[in-house]
Amino acid sequence: MKYDGIFFDSGGTLFSFKSTAAGPDPGVGEVSAQGPERAATALRWLGHQVEDGEVAQHLAELAALPRTIGPAYTQEGLMRALFERLGKTPRADEVVYVTGVYSGPRYRSWLFPGVGEVLGELHALGIPMGLIANTDVPGWVMDRNFRGVGLLHYFPVRLYSGDEGIEKPDPRIFELAAERANLSGRRLIYMGDRVDKDVAGASAAGWSSILFRSALEDSGGAADFEIDSWSELKAILLE
Q1: For 102-114, how does the pLDDT look when each residue is reduced to its tens digit (9 = 90+)?
Q2: d(CA 147, CA 21)
Q3: CB atoms < 10 A from the CB of 239, how many?
Q4: DSSP β-bridge partners for residue 158
């Protein structure tokens, strides 16, 4: 093996976050837009008398919260703030419940073609794999979503920026991933769709990098490899 392990980005690399999905599933934009309505419904299920418009307005007014909190911001913190804005006690059990409903699903149809098949092949070859994702979705929700699309078992080491309070391109999150995977000082490579976060962060940590060109035409020479399809990945790792 040319590399001792590979880590992946999530959105734009595993999942396509385009506005529509193939088949009968709703698209990313639709699921995101329905978040306030889902949160209001979850609150009513818990016995809180709220209106959809009231919840949507509070969430719109909390839009600056990510900038205030920084990398440690998650949707769970947003829901806690929503409870406070509604004048309700933010009990942990209720906050967690509403967060899960608000965040919404991730559908298998959102995965890029070949993701499941390629990960299965790499897993069978014994290549260590993991995740490093910048996301405001709490780690337990991310894990739920990966379990739902049948991929969680491929990633024994998973680092989510909101949980860690560190985000790409900070090399510390890459170093922490290597440490947790017992791969510190080994030959590691990272695959993502952004140059400024993924390629730059991996390079700063001394890792090799792959730009998955789902959004960018090229890396301007910054990435070690550039691919357009998941079917190209195996050859890079086995070179």
Answers
A1: 999 999 999 999 9
A2: 19
A3: 9
A4: 131
β-bridge mates for residue 15, sequence order: 11, 111
Please state the φ and ψ torsions of residue 191, each to the nearest 5 degrees. Answer: -120, 125
**Cβ distance 162 to 71 under 8 Å?**
yes
Interval 125-137: pLDDT, tens: 999 999 999 999 9
CB atoms within 10 A of CB 200: 20
Sheet holding 129-133, edge to edge: 157-160, 129-133, 5-8, 188-192, 208-212, 225-227
Residue the block writes with tokens 């080994």: 186
Please state the φ and ψ torsions of residue 22, each to the nearest 5 degrees. Answer: -75, 150
- Other CB atoms within 10 Å distance of the CB of residue 218: 11
Predicted local confidence at residue 19, as pLDDT? 54
Pick from 131, 184, 128: nearest CA to 11: 131
CB 2 within 8 A of CB 237: yes
Residue 39: both structure tokens together: 């949160």
**What's the length of the chain?**
239
- Number of helices (H), then strands (E), belonging to the chain: the values are 12, 6
- What's the CA gap between 32 and 17, in Å, rounded? 11
Task: Tell me the Cα Rg of the chain.
Answer: 19
Q: Which of 116, 118, 137 is nearest to 28 (CA)?
A: 137
Main-chain phi, psi angles of 167, to 5 degrees: -135, 155
Burial class (CB in 10 A: 0-12, 13-18, 19+), 28: buried
Which residues are bridge partners to 7 per DSSP?
130, 190
Query: 60 CB contacts (<8 Å, ≥6 apart)?
Result: none
